[in-house]
Amino acid sequence: MPDSPYKLPDFSQPPFAGAPEARFAPLPADGVLPEDFFSTSNLPTYVHVGGRWKMPERPRMDCVIAQRQGKLETIEPRRLRKGELVAMGQAEDGSEGIVVHTEGFLGGSHGANEFRFMSTEVSRERPVNYEELAARVGEEKRDGGFLVWVVGPALVHSRARADFEWFIANGYVQAVLVGNAVAVHDIEAAIFGTTLGMSNTGQPTEGGHGLHMRAINRVRAVGSIERAVETGLIASGIMHALVKHRVPYVLAGSIRDDGPLPGVVSDTLAAQDAMREHTIKATGAIFVATALHAIAVGNMLPAFHTRRGAPAPLMTICVDQTEFVVNKLKDRGTHQAYGVVTNAQDFMHVLRHYVEQWARAQD
Length: 363
Hints:
Elements lengths: L23 E3 L18 E5 L2 E3 L9 E5 L2 E5 L9 E3 L10 E3 L29 H13 L4 E5 L1 H5 L3 H9 L5 E5 H13 L18 H12 L2 H7 L6 H7 L4 E4 L15 H12 L4 E5 L2 H10 L3 E4 L2 E4 L1 E6 L2 H9 L6 E4 L2 H19 L1
Parallel strand pairs: 8-9, 8-11, 9-10, 11-14, 14-15
Antiparallel strand pairs: 1-6, 2-3, 2-7, 4-5, 4-6, 12-13
Helix pairs in contact: 1-11, 3-11, 4-5, 9-10
């Protein structure tokens, strides 16, 4: 799974040479864009301003490019106010002063909307090169990268919880973006040894259906997840590891949440803002067994990050037991997603095994 080589643009050649300056226009009202605004993608973008080609900060798809205090920033329209200036035009070929530079990200005959991290299709019959995946994950840690993990409750139910603890404890996790349910079931496992009332062998327990509610109540009683770890109420698991190793996390709320736990961000826009502060730092992302959170976070991720002054493809791994979730993620714009079609337990066990092998080989 090698990085595609990115070649920095030659601004003396087309489509850059001879291109006009980008146009900017003010918002007519708070959160209302002028017609014909430029809508961003997740690919490297350059804007011609003041005789120079500049790449906007904080790249993200489905946003606009605002001019603020001499800088260009990719920003959500809801955050803009009347009179602020945003880039105009729909062309991406430089004819309106904006170039979406796909070289190094698009290969062969693929068009500008078909960026692929790997050229093969997503399939449960496709072999997974875990040695290569492990090397990429290990290299991110070695090079001081920022790996964002997005996981669903199935990771907890499937007995992959201990493996995730290991990745957190050993420095392969820099941020975790999940929902209330992941934390609830993990904490239930820490307190009662069950998840949704099931034992770790998958057997239902007497009165187990209410144990997640009792877990929530105990954490609410002490005030916070951090306090629950300090007091020993939570002595193991994912949330314990995150608190112990000071790894930041965002618990994003939803309408279906039980409780929720203290610390869950129930305002969806506030949760999006909190998650975005981690996605802008990401050099890699790993999605495991979660459709909604994978698509949500995927929409915040650019297809690249800046490495040694140049854009480099952002490693994005999506794991699910069906092709549907991976294809849905790619169809929603996260073209760089590399799909692994397997269950959470197998993926986490096998990846950990090969990462441990990789780490030993580095000693």
